[in-house]
């Protein structure tokens, strides 16, 4: 009888241990799932007003905010094709569409080529926050002075010197602090996530009113003209330029 009772007690202890392990396992699994869900939610890029996937209200913009067509470029300041776009395509767009109030142009960082891609993007964001107009001078100068893609040329010193050259009125202590403290890390990372969500896998990538188009002046102009025609507005005269390939 004593042996049977001892055996029953041992069995009950084993069953209780199994139940405790099951409860602990369930709690652990639930915690892992909760962490995954929270992480997934926090890693998702934000959505702008009216469900805007580009979050344009927080992006550098050139042109009239009320212009009927939105052109968006995803770029990396270290990308040679992006430099080609800035030199050969953007000026034509600016003259024909941006300066005439037919389109507004946005730049979104897609900084992925190297560590100094982030440094350049952060510096540009800091310039934009101080003076939105100075951003575009900095944008053009960065591409004009672009170094080899394989080298880390976009150093803090280079970026500060360039900013002093094109926008001497800026607060350079604040600009240096922004670069050193990685103030814009989250913003640059969010821009990268926005691009990935939209299927961007190369730069430059250009969208016209939410539709991806080839980044030649001809293709972008045709897309803008089509968007204007849909809204009953006069399209622009045809433009000519070489097409890039990225």
What keywords describe this structure?
extended; 5 strands; 246 residues; 5-stranded mixed β-sheet; 2 domains; Glutaredoxin; alpha+beta
What features would you describe in this structure?
The protein has 246 residues and is an alpha+beta fold. It folds into two domains: 1-43; 56-230, Glutaredoxin (3-Layer(aba) Sandwich). The chain is 56% helix and 9% strand. It contains eight helices and five strands; from the N terminus they run αββαβαααααββα. Strands 1-3-2-4-5 form a five-stranded mixed sheet. It is extended. The relative contact order is 0.14. Residues 26-43 and 239-243 have low confidence and may be disordered.
Summarize the structure.
The chain is α+β, with helices and mostly antiparallel strands and 246 residues long.
Annotate the secondary structure layout.
Elements: H1 2-43, E1 61-62, E2 69-75, H2 80-98, E3 103-109, H3 115-130, H4 132-144, H5 156-166, H6 172-180, H7 185-197, E4 205-208, E5 211-213, H8 217-230
Parallel strand pairs: 2-3
Antiparallel strand pairs: 1-3, 2-4, 4-5
Oligomer: single chain
Content of β-strand: 5-15%
Domain unit count: 2
Fraction of helical residues: 55-70%
Please count the helical segments: 8
**Numbering strands along the chain, what is their spatial order in the largest sheet?**
1-3-2-4-5
CATH-derived topology of the largest domain: Glutaredoxin
Helix and strand element order: HEEHEHHHHHEEH
Structural class: alpha+beta
Q: Which overall shape is indicated by the principal axes computed on the Cα atoms?
A: extended
Number of strands: 5
Stretches where pLDDT is under 50 for at least 5 consecutive residues are 26-43, 239-243
Main beta sheet, described? 5 strands, mixed
Radius of gyration: 26 Å
| CATH class term of the largest domain | Alpha Beta
Rounded mean pLDDT score? 85
Query: Would you identify the CATH H-level superfamily of the largest domain?
Result: Glutaredoxin
């Amino acid at each position: 009888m004593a042996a049977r009772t001892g055996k029953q007690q041992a069995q009950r202890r084993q069953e209780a241990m199994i139940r405790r392990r099951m409860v602990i396992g369930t709690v652990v699994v639930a915690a892992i799932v909760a962490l995954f869900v929270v992480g997934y939610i926090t890693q998702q890029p934000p959505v702008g007003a009216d469900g805007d996937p580009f979050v344009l209200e927080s992006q550098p913009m050139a042109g009239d905010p009320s212009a009927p067509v939105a052109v968006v470029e995803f770029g990396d300041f270290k990308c040679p094709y992006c430099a080609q776009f800035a030199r050969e395509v953007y000026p034509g767009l600016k003259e024909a569409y941006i300066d005439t109030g037919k389109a507004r142009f946005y730049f979104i960082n897609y900084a992925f080529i190297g560590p100094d891609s982030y440094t350049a993007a952060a510096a540009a964001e800091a310039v934009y926050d101080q003076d939105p107009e100075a951003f575009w001078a900095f944008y053009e100068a960065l591409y004009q002075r672009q170094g080899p893609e394989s080298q880390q040329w976009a150093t803090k010193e280079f970026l500060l010197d360039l900013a002093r050259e094109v926008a001497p009125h800026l607060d350079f202590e604040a600009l240096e602090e922004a670069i050193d403290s990685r103030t814009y890390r989250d913003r640059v990372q969010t821009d990268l996530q926005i691009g990935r969500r939209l299927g961007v896998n190369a730069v430059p990538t250009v969208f016209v009113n939410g539709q991806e188009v080839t980044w030649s002046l001809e293709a972008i102009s045709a897309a803008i003209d089509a968007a204007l025609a849909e809204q009953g507005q006069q399209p622009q005269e045809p433009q000519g330029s070489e097409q890039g390939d990225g």
